[in-house]
């Protein structure tokens, strides 16, 4: 999920830029879709590498919460990208369908972002189990995990409009 976690916030925030920066919607839609597609491509490369490594080293696949969170994240993300592409980029979707799907798309986008952070943090924790006793590794892992959580929380605050509500 190290591909999705860094790329999902910028993809989501493209639609929350200050009004003075907005141009026509199509370039923003294309940038949003391109960032998401790049994240998806890198995620697939990562999954192929992980399953290949596990198979080569005779390590079982899908043996932990990290594995299942990651798989759920990737499956939801795949559905989200396909549905978003169909509803918002293809010209045949009627406006009423786009309006109906938009809040669903926003909800699942935020959900996928949080799932990707949970996948990363559980993966960091899982990795620490294999390197117990190494204090620098534990400190770095904690800092990386906190960074992921803070970035996700900041992105969520922007997406849900908390900048002007006195919270931030």
From TrEMBL:
Entry superkingdom: Eukaryota
Membrane-crossing residue ranges in chain numbering: 30-53, 65-92, 104-124
GO MF: metal ion binding; transmembrane ascorbate ferrireductase activity
Cofactors named for this entry: heme b
Catalysis: reaction(s): Fe(3+)(out) + L-ascorbate(in) = monodehydro-L-ascorbate radical(in) + Fe(2+)(out) + H(+)
EC number(s) on file: 7.2.1.3
Gene3D superfamilies: 1.20.120.1770
Membrane topology annotation: Multi-pass membrane protein
Positions of the Cytochrome b561 domain: 1-160
UniProt keyword annotations, A-Z: Electron transport, Endosome, Glycoprotein, Heme, Iron, Lysosome, Membrane, Metal-binding, Oxidoreductase, Translocase, Transmembrane, Transmembrane helix, Transport
GO cellular component: late endosome membrane; lysosomal membrane
One Pfam family this sequence matches: Cytochrom_B561
Cellular location(s): Late endosome membrane; Lysosome membrane
Main localization category: membrane
Function: Transmembrane reductase that uses ascorbate as an electron donor in the cytoplasm and transfers electrons across membranes to reduce iron cations Fe(3+) into Fe(2+) in the lumen of the late endosome and lysosome. Reduced iron can then be extruded from the late endosome and lysosome to the cytoplasm by divalent metal-specific transporters. It is therefore most probably involved in endosomal and lysosomal cellular iron homeostasis.
PANTHER family in the cross-refs: CYTOCHROME B561-RELATED (PTHR10106), LYSOSOMAL MEMBRANE ASCORBATE-DEPENDENT FERRIREDUCTASE CYB561A3 (PTHR10106:SF38)
Assembly and binders: Homodimer.
Entry protein name: Lysosomal membrane ascorbate-dependent ferrireductase CYB561A3
